[in-house]
Specification:
It catalyses: Hydrolysis of terminal, non-reducing beta-D-glucosyl residues with release of beta-D-glucose. About 40% of the residues lie in helices and about 15% in strands. The chain is an alpha/beta fold. It binds 5-hydroxymethyl-3,4-dihydroxypiperidine (IFM). 5-hydroxymethyl-3,4-dihydroxypiperidine (IFM) binds next to loops.
């Protein structure tokens, strides 16, 4: 039974409940925080273009300025250091490195990330670099984007250039963030860039993204022999809406696309046969050797956990005749996502039971609420703090039961550009006033800071 977030007594939890070498981080991504879209020779990304489409972004905004992190990064890294983090997850804007087709890598882009990495190391923050967090260069989209196999090779080249340049200092590499979102939000639902709505394209894109992960790994390992490399997946614990066989079967199908479509090939099983059979007309072109490349061993599995889903049979609903139903009487974030700390443990246990997987890092977990700045300038986001406390307690309990989880990255260090939701959804431990760019640590951030300073914590 899912506990409600407003249960009266949040669990007591201390950093000392976790291993001494546990990693404590915050995560961000380039397009969501950097701004500076015309600075340093950056080219356009698919998100710059997508944001120009009327109605694409809820508040009509874009990441053109975002948190202006491109210019304010020292202050932001100071925030991470002052929180007591020992790791920081960030991503590289591919169009800063390859702004134009066929051009040589842009030295200004490489220098920016070089300074950023140096800034992390100076502050005791272990850099966790994500190569792709959704900002594909527009010039690659104009050649077909992730639907084209050439983009796979362009990504491998990008991985090679970035790892050759930063690999002397960056040892932790994440190839892709949430390939499900790239494929399904971006190419089936059309709610993310590039705004395509075609299931067949989405499955081909998912395959190319996974293949590009597989081809990037050897490039990273060649440049960084002591690299730890992996991928970050958005995964969900699922349950059927009822005991009816139709709902149970629908849940299995939904799992096949949500979770297994990515976990299976990464773990050497190829694409799930049940989904391939059902979607035969839309199946991706998979060439000889692709599945072997995708299944190359990794050093960790990044798990982004936000919410569970309840699934019911939905006759006729594309693509798999399955739909998500809302559980009643549960706490939900401002996004409507169910707050379910127990789901984190259930998800980790399921992955470890079903797959011979590498150690897990929680590479994202967080929540959005309608934050209010008080008259005293404080942001009393007790719901986000409770969310954090309860998810960390669930993580601690899961590790105590034997799960191999080595680190946790809160999403996010800063309020930022939340994709199709623009600036209407705040996920930060730090409040950003987007008019003035003032940063203020929220109560949740204050709690995380106290927790990381080894003080015994009561939620
Ligand atoms: O903001 C996103 C992030 O870019 C990817 N994972 C989920 C977050 C919250 O929606």
């Amino acid at each position: 039974m899912t506990k409600k977030i407003h249960d009266p007594a949040p669990p007591a939890i201390a950093r000392s409940d976790f291993a001494r070498d546990f990693l404590w981080g915050c995560a961000t991504s380039s397009y969501q925080i950097e701004g500076g879209v015309r600075a340093g020779g950056r080219g356009d990304s698919i998100w710059d273009r997508f944001c120009e489409q009327p109605g694409a972004i809820r508040d009509g905004s874009s990441g053109a300025v975002a948190c202006d992190h491109y210019h304010r990064w020292p202050e932001d890294l100071d925030l991470g250091r002052d929180l007591g983090l020992n790791a920081y997850r960030f991503s590289i804007a591919w169009p800063r490195i390859f702004p134009e087709p066929g051009a040589r890598p842009n030295p200004q882009g490489l220098d920016f990330y070089s300074r950023l990495v140096d800034g992390m190391l100076e502050r005791g923050l272990q850099p966790w670099l994500t190569l792709y967090h959704w900002d594909l260069p527009q010039h690659l989209q104009e050649r077909g984007g992730w639907n084209e196999r050439d983009t796979v090779h362009a990504f491998a080249e990008f991985a090679d250039v970035v790892s050759a340049h930063l690999g002397d200092r960056v040892k932790h590499w994440i190839t892709h963030n949430e390939p499900w979102c790239t494929a399904i939000h971006g190419h089936f639902e059309g709610v993310h860039a590039p705004g395509v709505k075609d299931f067949r394209t989405a499955l081909q894109v998912a395959h190319h993204v996974l293949l590009s992960h597989g081809l990037a790994l050897p490039a990273i390992r060649a440049n960084v022999p002591d690299a730890q490399a992996g991928i970050a997946l958005s995964l969900h614990p699922l349950s059927a809406a009822s005991d009816r066989p139709e709902d149970i079967a629908a849940c299995v199908r939904h799992d096949g696309l949500r979770n297994r479509w990515f976990l299976d090939p990464l773990h050497g099983r190829g694409y799930p046969a049940d989904i391939l059979e059902r979607c035969a007309a839309d199946a991706p072109a998979v060439l000889a050797g692709d599945l072997e490349a995708i299944a190359a061993p990794t050093d960790f599995l990044g798990v982004n956990y936000y919410f569970p889903e309840i699934i019911a049979h939905a006759p006729g609903a594309a693509p798999l005749e399955a739909r998500v139903v809302a559980r009643e009487d549960v706490a939900r974030t401002a996004f409507g996502w169910e707050v379910a700390p127990d789901g984190l443990g259930a998800l980790i246990r399921r992955i470890e039971a079903d797959y011979d997987c590498a150690p897990i890092y929680i590479t994202e977990n967080g929540s959005t609420w309608d934050d209010v700045v008080g008259a005293d300038g404080q942001i009393d986001d007790h719901q986000r703090r409770d969310y954090l406390v309860r998810h960390l307690a669930a993580l601690r309990d899961t590790i105590a039961q034997g799960s191999r989880v080595k680190g946790y990255f809160a999403w996010s260090l800063l309020d930022n550009f939340e994709w199709a939701e623009g600036y209407t959804r705040r996920f930060g431990l730090t409040h950003v006033d987007f008019a003035t760019q003032q940063r203020r640590l929220k109560r949740s951030g204050q709690w995380y800071r106290a927790f990381l300073k080894l003080e015994p914590q009561q939620g």
